[in-house]
Amino acid sequence: MPTGVHIRDARRHLFDAAERVLLRDGPNALTSRAVTTEADVAKGVLHRHFADFDDFLAELVRERIAGIGAQAAALRDSAGTGTVAGNLTGALRELFDPVAVSIVGLVVFRDELRARLRQAGPPNGVPVMAEAVAMIASYLADECELGRIAADADVDSLALSLVGAGHLMFAGRAGAPPEEGEVGKVVTTVIADVVQRRLL
């Protein structure tokens, strides 16, 4: 893009470019030059909007975390409707889209990025994954209160299991993501005990 050409939303333009690089080439290839080349802008454009490249990456990840917050609200609204397994299956499939899986890899790959994210977020766990676990645990707690899973369910452990299994299923795919039935089978297995015991 020629110097001086106005970009309506430079931040979004750069984030979109970063996501394309991540999806195509992986976290090792994500550099400021790769992003600005993909965005077809001068390197200075990135530095006009962000203090440095790690600041840019932190904002990229925070945007994804904000999306998890919106998804968490929708998931909690679904408590008491449909089936618990169906709601969780849908949530995991939405959570682990290809960009999210790539961003988790980026966070694991870059120590400085992880440190910056932890300054404003949970001190433990992998950013993005930690928020995902909190989202699932909150939903399960709501379902406990509604009596749709056992009242003594360990929602934190269940959430860890679901998010960990979900990430492994989606991250291990070179091509298409797992089918809904595949994800549903894992979800049903993980929650089988707490669903069964609520009937006793």
C-alpha termini separation: 65 Å
Q: In terms of structural class, how would the helical and strand content be classed?
A: mainly alpha
Outline the low-pLDDT stretches: 1-5
Number of helical elements: 10
| Total domain modules | 1
CATH superfamily: Tetracycline Repressor, domain 2
- Average pLDDT over all residues: 90
Instruction: Please state the overall shape, judged from the principal axes of the Cα atoms.
Output: elongated
Strand runs, count: 0
* Helix content, binned percent: over 70%
Task: Sketch the topology as an H/E string, one letter per element.
Answer: HHHHHHHHHH
CATH architecture: Orthogonal Bundle
Largest sheet: none
Strand content: under 5%
Report Rg. 19 Å
CATH class: Mainly Alpha
CATH topology: Tetracycline Repressor, domain 2
Write the layout of secondary structure elements.
Blueprint lengths: L9 H16 L6 H8 L3 H7 L3 H25 L6 H12 L2 H12 L1 H10 L8 H17 L9 H17 L8 H18 L3
Helix pairs in contact: 1-2, 1-6, 4-7, 4-8, 5-8, 5-10, 8-9, 9-10
